[in-house]
Amino acid sequence: MLEKILQSFGMNAADYQIQFFGSGLINHTFKVSGRGEVYILQQINSDVFKSPEYIANNLTLIQDYLNKLYPDYLFVGPIPSISGDFLVESDGGKFYRLFPFVKGSQTINFISNEKQAFEAAKQFGKFTYLLKDFDPTALKYTLTDFHNLELRFEQFEAASRNATSERIAEAFEEIKEVYKHNNILQTYRTILANKEVPVRVIHHDTKISNVLFDEQQNGLCVIDLDTVMPGYFFSDVGDMMRTYLSPANEEETDFSKIHIREAIFSAICKGYLSELGSIFTEKEKQYFVFSGELMIYMQAVRFLTDYLNNDIYYGSKYPGHNLNRAKNQFKLLNEYVRSVGKFKKLIAQAENELYS
Ligand code: GN1
Ligand code: MG
Fold first, then answer.
1. What pLDDT is recorded for position 5?
2. For the chain, which residues score pLDDT lower than 70?
3. Are residues 39 and 138 in the same domain?
4. Is the Transferase keyword given for this protein (predicted)?
């Protein structure tokens, strides 16, 4: 079937090798190599992205804007098919896109030093900074209410009402954790109700494998732009906190391995603020540390909801997988909350270093 897709791009499948690539939970990604060329082919999960054409629309608008204003910025946009489409539909109603593989670029799956965290945060900050005068409302919501904690909480409550008694019993402690931390929901409501932070162009999936690096480990650009849409800084900053700070990731089941690397926290602050600091509002600065609490909590709630819903969204590789992911994220959240006082000092230090 992938053969037909490659044909739509004018490629003869017999000339290429196709391998699974990447570790995303939602879309399927393949590396296509042959004839001295390398491409990334991605199947969009249209159960999740209900209007995949919105992704193509958004990327075209952003690409045109960046090419005009910042021609030196490396924007990795999709390659058009022979009929000029950025999205190709297969018989089964599946949608595919093809990207060039940037020569000499690398992706990493784990942050092992401060430089990597700094460079990644800088690239996410730069992306939003370069688009600061682009009207975010021109973009479509590729996933409506994606990072809407209010809705995630409602989905969790609905799932708890409908879950089997076995799953409710298994998840008893984690359900308590959701309520224990619901001050996070209150703060989130305050921020949004008072329009305290501006709407910007936000990436919404800042995991480290979505950054391209060069051979010297300098950041080149951000990739995986499906969830680029109007949003708030806390989505990107918070998801970096969630995915960069701990040496063990969300799949770890030995929860004692989850802890906070303070030096990585400082590197995220410096990298992000080195790009966006000059246009950040006072409120954005005020809620910078809170972003981590918000996004870790949201992910914990989403994993737990999926467990209660019998794993219909994230899938599960073993019984209790999503419950373990939720436990993992609550452990991370509790570690994070314990470090908030320290984080406030570190961010003040980072600002001093940047602006002195
Ligand atoms: C999903 O598919 P992937 O791994 O890029 C999810 C993110 C979660 C992440 C958790 C569209 O991202 O929101 O943070 O899993 N994306 C969607 O691993 O739901
Ligand atoms: Mg993604």
1. 95
2. none
3. no
4. yes
pLDDT at 328: 99
pLDDT confidence of residue 46: 87
253 and 142 belong to one structural domain: yes
Q: What is the pLDDT of residue 21?
A: 87
Any domain includes 105: no
- Type and span of the H or E element at 95: strand 95-100
Q: Give ligand 1 pocket residues (Cβ under 6 A).
A: 24-26, 48, 143, 205, 250, 299
pTM: 0.95
- Considering the domain boundaries, does residue 131 fall inside one? yes
CA–CA gap between residue 198 and residue 232 (Å, rounded):
7
Main-chain phi, psi angles of 122, to 5 degrees: -65, -40
Tokens of 356: 């002195």
Pairwise CA distance, residues 86 & 63, whole Å? 13
Are 201 and 233 in contact by the 8 Å Cβ rule? The answer is no
Q: Which residues is 38 bridged to in the sheet?
A: 33
Domain count, the chain: 2
CATH of the domain at 11: 3.30.200.20
Tens digits of per-residue pLDDT, 68-91?
Answer: 999 999 999 999 999 999 999 987
Going by their DSSP bridges, the two strands 219-222 and 88-89 should be labelled as: unpaired
What the block records as the tokens of 294 is 């918000």
pLDDT digits (tens, 9 = 90+) for 145-170: 999 999 999 999 999 999 999 999 99
Could you say which of 51, 72, 100 is where a domain stops?
100
Pocket probe for ligand 1: among 23, 25, 46, the residue whose CB has the most ligand atoms within 8 Å is 25
Distance 262 CA to ligand 1 centre (A): 25
